[in-house]
Amino acid sequence: MDARLNIYENKVSVKFLKYITAAAKVFSSLPTTTLELVSLRISQINGCAFCVDMHTKEALHEGETPLRLNLVAVWREANVFTEAERAALALAEQGTRIGDAAEGVTDAVWENAAKHYDEDELAALVSLISFMNTVNRMNVITQQAGGDYELGWVQNFG
Question: 78 — phi, psi (to 5°)?
């Protein structure tokens, strides 16, 4: 598949991506595992092959197991995630599928996440969910392919 637009070389999209990638430093208050699991799940929902490729490889590099990565898509039925990870995944799903339900993110999902994450971590989690939805949409709209991601590339981009 050929990309419609190379957003990683176009001067306008590169400038935009550098700004939002720099802002992504706020995610550092989240556990790396949570960050990668949430990023992977959002990317699966949005059908972003580039980001599924990237977050699978980055998570494996950080020590995540293939079993847990394979079960992210069915996390509700899997017994390999912590309660905090499950709360983050639920928030990520509702925050991504915001148009699928009239209530958006429910109070129950928010309150469960708040049991496991302090206010700064919640702010980082909300920012991560918003960020991933943005970059997923850019990649999907421009048909960025998955499979060629090289480990560590994202850290060197911004």
Answer: -105, 145
The answer to whether 112 and 137 are in contact (CB under 8 A) is no
User: Regarding the domain delimited by 11-150, which CATH topology (the fold level of the hierarchy) does it fall under?
Assistant: AhpD-like (1.20.1290)
Q: Tell me what pLDDT residue 155 has.
A: 67
Q: Would you report the helix, strand and coil content of the chain in percent, each value rounded to 5?
A: 70, 0, 30
Residue 36 and residue 58: Cα distance in Å, rounded? Answer: 7
Sign of CA dihedral 81, 84, 86, 91: negative
Q: Name 84's Cβ contacts closer than 8 Å, sequence gap at least 6.
A: 34, 116, 117
Hey, where are the domains in the chain? 11-150
Task: Give the tens place of pLDDT for each residue, 93-107.
Answer: 999 998 887 688 999
- Is 117 exposed, middle or buried (CB count within 10 Å of its CB: 0-12, 13-18, 19+)? buried
- Give the up-direction half-sphere exposure of residue 140: CA atoms within 13 A in the CB hemisphere: 14
Handedness of CA 16, 18, 22, 28 (dihedral sign): positive
What per-residue confidence (pLDDT) applies to 150?
86
Asked if residue 156 has pLDDT above 70, the reply is no
Q: How confident is the model at residue 138 (pLDDT cuts 50, 70, 90)?
A: very high
